[in-house]
Amino acid sequence: MQLKNAPKIAVIIPAFNEAQSIEKVIRALPSEAQVIVVDNGSTDKTFQKATAAGATVLKEAKKGYGHACLKGIASLQKNPPEILVFLDGDFSDYPEDLPTIIAPILNQQADFVVGARTAVLREKGALTPQQIFGNGLACWLMRLLYKSRFTDLGPFRAIRWEVLDSLEMKDKTYGWTIEMQLKVLRRKIPYLEVPVRYRKRIGVSKVSGTLIGTLMAGYKILGWIGTFYFSKWK
Q1: CB burial class (10 A; 0-12, 13-18, 19+) of residue 183?
Q2: Gyration radius of the chain's alpha carbons
Q3: Alpha-carbon distances of 125 from 131, 200, 207, rounded to whole Å
Q4: Packing angle, helices 176-187 and 65-75, rounded to 10
């Protein structure tokens, strides 16, 4: 699928010390997409590598996945795209699968799409046991509380700009993905999951690769599910 006749699409890639992989990610994306890399305080050559690969590169000194995503979104406010895509900068996602991610939106089947890292398409060892358990628990709780059909909290996702803007995203760190999905469920926004390929990342994960990162991510995700259920957000 080509993007030449598609609406304006922007891609936000939060990146922290991804010098080994960021060029691969950018060059694998369809050339028609606007690519924004948000360097989240890297100490390597992520900024230079991303710039050389042709992306617009921003700096966000405040550490946190959500901080980086919000920085990218803010940069698009004056000239927003119609569809916004998020993916990681470690080359674990397959950037060339972007057309698959946005297809349900283009076909008016959904306003929000998550790439589900299914076991059949996932490289062995690409997700750690704690990631698999955490994803499973979070999705089970969403099914229990919201009758959700989500099976994953995958980072490769697409959403209509006006829908994202209405969600009033706030989380600055590990809860970004679950916040988005919970708000989509609460608003009953049309959504779909599409199976996507997934491989071992280049480098070491800053979240699942450390005990503290794993515990903090789990705490934030479960905290969002628990507190949001009793919130009055509409």
Answers
A1: buried
A2: 16
A3: 11, 7, 16
A4: 60
pLDDT recorded at residue 209: 47
Confidence band of 218 (pLDDT split at 50, 70, 90): confident
The identity of residue 232, as a single letter, is K
Amino acid at 78: K
Q: Which domains does the chain have, with CATH numbers?
A: 9-229 (3.90.550.10)
* Contact call for residues 209 and 16 (beta carbons, < 8 A): no
> For residue 87, what are its two tokens?
């993916």
pTM for the full predicted model: 0.92
Cβ 42 vs Cβ 16: under 8 Å: yes
Side chain identity, residue 217: A
User: 118 and 97 in contact (C-beta within 8 Å)?
Assistant: no
Q: What is the pLDDT of residues 25-69, one digit of tens each?
A: 999 999 999 999 999 999 999 999 999 999 999 999 999 999 999
Provide the residue type at 45 as one letter: K
Degrees to nearest 5, angle at CA 188 with 150 and 81? 85
Q: What is the pLDDT of the chain when averaged over all its residues?
A: 92
Asked whether the predicted pLDDT for residue 78 surpasses 50, the reply is: yes
- Tell whether the model's pLDDT for residue 213 goes beyond 70: no
Neighbouring residues of 147: CB distance < 8 A, sequence distance ≥ 6: none
